[in-house]
Backbone:
């Protein structure tokens, strides 16, 4: 059996893997630096996402690695518990994902309100942009999301008075400009991903001009890896850390499975098997936790690049992990040449892409309730933190759904002669009982009344009992009794 017959799409997959590698490299490093951990740990997560998760069944063309969407949560965890505890948190989150996958919970993530997920990404995007603007200027960012936003005017004033900060900002702004304008260049030039080109150009400019900008600190791959020790495992005795573990598991799972649904729309190959994909993500995060690395999720930017580059099988994503491993082993010192404001520019652009401007407009025109959920989730994440913001968004989505599920319309038709007709439509639940009774009790007692229930999708016991009680008591003496029927008016008249 020849190599071509055994791997018929090897050429396409190798070419796609190189593209994905070039897209992933600056993002892996940038996400790690923004998360407050050594840059090499971002590469470790990318390697595990490619080789471990990439080999497992679930989604054939989806690519996993460190994600900008987890940056805020990871930074909060590292600030609270330290880098040493990160591995324990990721390990426990991975085991939780494995349990959810084996229990068949993966497919239920598709039931999470899209507005909550979009709001989560919007809030994360805002916090990333605000935080990385400080990094682009070489300044220390405030700890909270709200502090980052409110402190921007003061930070800008400080930057204007510092030549070093202005040079650093120029590097960051130039990086963003290159990424944005790269899409307008000829197709042959665009075979090199814009983010990588921007980082390379910023690095060259910094070296040639001998610019006074901070660069990535390099520890070496083996030096950066910190498997959880006894002290880190002891952190699990703190009940508060389990909230962070749960947030890691749920948010990483939701982002991965929503990404899978989006990637499935980009190709005609095998569809994602959600529970198996959950297991694959859990296995990857378990390994990342054992290595003390960043958490992973499936990432739509890398996944769409994989599909667009012509990938046909999972070999492309596995090979991208191999290329990351070779780079980390052979050329780790090149990371020390990369200016931090260039990575900040990459993440500012990534954060901007997380904000769903178009979806907010569409939702506001067609579903104002969903738009409200999105905005409240985003604002809550900025004002408080990731976990509390997402929980508030989920709670609001549940309240909105309960409100819509109890929607009821009461229509009264009085033609001046004959019985008064009352048409109930929607869902008659105890939540709407006061409104129903207010409408019915306002009807005259000296006229015959017919109440039609044919338009109801649901009538609970409390409403049925209240209707029967009102019908018995409403009519005055000598008046035809109230008639409550599920028939259409025409059928009721014919009978």
Residues:
């Amino acid at each position: 059996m020849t190599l071509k017959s055994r791997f018929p799409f090897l050429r396409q997959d190798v070419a796609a893997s190189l593209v994905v590698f070039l897209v992933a490299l600056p993002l892996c490093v940038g996400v790690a630096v923004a998360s407050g951990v050594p840059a090499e740990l971002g590469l470790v997560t990318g390697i595990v996402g490619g080789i471990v998760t990439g080999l497992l069944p679930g989604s054939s063309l989806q690519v996993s690695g460190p994600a900008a969407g987890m940056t805020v949560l990871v930074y909060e965890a590292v600030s609270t518990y330290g880098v040493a505890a990160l591995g324990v948190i990721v390990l426990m989150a991975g085991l939780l994902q494995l349990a959810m996958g084996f229990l068949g919970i993966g497919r239920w993530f598709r039931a999470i309100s899209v507005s909550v997920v979009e709001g989560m990404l919007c809030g994360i995007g805002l916090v990333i942009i605000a935080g990385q603007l400080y990094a682009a200027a070489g300044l220390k960012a405030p700890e909270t999301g709200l502090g980052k936003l409110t402190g921007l005017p003061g930070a800008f004033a400080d930057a204007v008075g510092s030549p070093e900060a202005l040079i650093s900002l120029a590097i960051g702004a130039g990086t963003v400009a290159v990424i944005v304008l790269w899409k307008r260049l000829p197709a042959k030039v665009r075979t090199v991903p814009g983010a990588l080109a921007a980082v390379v150009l910023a690095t060259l400019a910094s070296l040639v001009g001998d610019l006074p900008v901070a660069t990535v600190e390099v520890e070496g791959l083996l030096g950066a890896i910190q498997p959880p020790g006894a002290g880190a495992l002891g952190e699990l005795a703190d009940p508060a850390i389990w909230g962070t573990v749960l947030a890691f598991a749920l948010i990483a799972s939701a982002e991965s499975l929503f990404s899978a649904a989006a990637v499935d729309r980009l190709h005609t190959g095998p569809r994602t098997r959600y529970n198996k994909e959950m297991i694959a993500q859990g296995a990857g995060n378990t390994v990342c936790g054992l290595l003390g690395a960043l958490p992973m999720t499936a990432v739509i930017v890398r996944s769409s690049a994989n599909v667009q580059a012509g990938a046909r099988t999972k070999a492309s994503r596995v090979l991208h992990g191999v290329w990351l491993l070779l780079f980390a082993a052979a050329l780790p010192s090149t990371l020390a040449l990369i200016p931090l404001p260039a990575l900040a520019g990459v993440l500012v652009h990534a954060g901007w892409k997380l904000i769903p401007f178009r979806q907010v407009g569409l939702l506001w025109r067609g579903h104002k309730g969903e738009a409200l959920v999105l905005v409240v989730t985003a604002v809550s994440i900025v004002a408080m933190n990731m976990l509390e913001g997402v929980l508030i968004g989920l709670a609001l989505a549940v309240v909105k759904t309960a409100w819509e599920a109890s929607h009821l319309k009461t229509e009264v038709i009085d033609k001046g002669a004959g019985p008064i007709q009352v048409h109930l439509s929607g869902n008659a639940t105890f939540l709407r009982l006061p409104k129903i009774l207010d409408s019915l009790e306002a009807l005259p007692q000296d006229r015959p009344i017919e109440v039609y229930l044919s338009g109801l999708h649901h009538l609970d016991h409390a409403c049925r009992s209240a209707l029967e009680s009102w019908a018995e008591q409403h009519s005055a003496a000598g008046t035809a009794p109230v008639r409550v029927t599920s028939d259409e008016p025409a059928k009721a008249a014919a009978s």
About this structure: The radius of gyration is 29 Å. The first helix runs from residue 3 to 6. The chain has two domains: 9-353, 408-494.
